[in-house]
Amino acid sequence: MEWIKLIGILIILVGFILKLDTIAVVLVAGLVTALVSGISFGEFLSILGEAFVANRLVTLFFLTLPMIGLTERFGLRQQATHLIEGMKGLTPGRFMSLYMFIRELAGFFSVRIQGHTQFVRPLVEPMAQASATAKYEEPSEEDAEKIKARSAAMENLGNFYAQNTFVAAAGVLLITGTMESLGYEISAVAVAQASLPVALIALLLVLISNQLLDKKMERKYGRKVELSDKDKGGKQ
After folding, report:
1. Got the DSSP string for 130-148?
2. Choosing a second label site near 231 at 20 to 30 A (CA), which of 19, 24, 71, 94?
């Protein structure tokens, strides 16, 4: 009856299908799994508490929420937008390609930029929108939503494909530990080295995709023509 210990997976599956509270479903699944495995309720609480303490840094996410609110309140988004609007030659595709490169470079050095809520939404997405407004005519709502989605995609792609390029990343250590437990001799350096070509290929494909986005927007909206003071005076 060893298979009964997998009942927790069934509980989680049913809970997600019924759209029940996620935390409650996971806790119930863990408790039921513990009880059918011969673990007492007290031991279950002990394991749960140890896991919470070991991963308490995850709760630091909530400390970033007031900081995000303050930056929004005092105009960090507006200042970032003005900065991008003043850069000539910067297109949405080029800016997002630059962020993708920075994101992968950060992953290589294990520097955590902190993702969508703390970085992409307050800064990257408004700056990408500003580069579109500065370079082309005012984009439609549909194209603005596409830029928003692509800004989020740069974070996902950069994090996903470059996270294992750091030799001590959690994913690298997980792969190494799993392979060694199966009897394969493998080093963390080898896993990181194998991840580098994947990250570079992902970056290349993103560069091409963003370049195509710029060409599409230029055909659709055309470039903004900035008149000098002399030209303006002559036309008057």
Report:
1. HHHHHHBSPPPHHHHHHHH
2. 94
| Cα 6 to Cα 62: distance, rounded to the nearest angstrom | 33
3-state helix, strand, coil in the chain (%, to 5): 80, 0, 20
Rounded Cα distance between 125 and 129, Å, is: 6
Per-residue model confidence as pLDDT tens digits over 49-99: 777 665 554 555 555 556 556 555 555 556 655 666 566 678 999 999 999
Q: Please state, in angstroms and rounded to a whole number, the distance separating the CA atoms of residues 214 and 147.
A: 11
Q: Give Cβ neighbours of residue 91 (< 8 Å, ≥ 6 apart).
A: 131, 132, 135, 214, 217
Closest Cα to residue 194, out of 170, 167, 158?
Answer: 167
Percent of the chain exceeding pLDDT 90 equals 30
For residues 157 and 105, the answer to whether their CB atoms sit within 8 Å is no
Q: What is the pLDDT of residue 236?
A: 44
> What do you get for the CA distance between the two ends of the chain, in Å?
89
Write out the DSSP string of 187-205.
Answer: -HHHHHHHHHHHHHHHHHH
177: nearest Cα among 188, 167, 169 = 188
pLDDT at 215 over 60: yes
Amino acid at the residue 74:
F
Could you tell me which of 86, 153, 90 has the C-alpha nearest to residue 125?
153
**CA-to-CA separations, 230 to 25, 218, 226, in angstroms, rounded:** 69, 26, 12
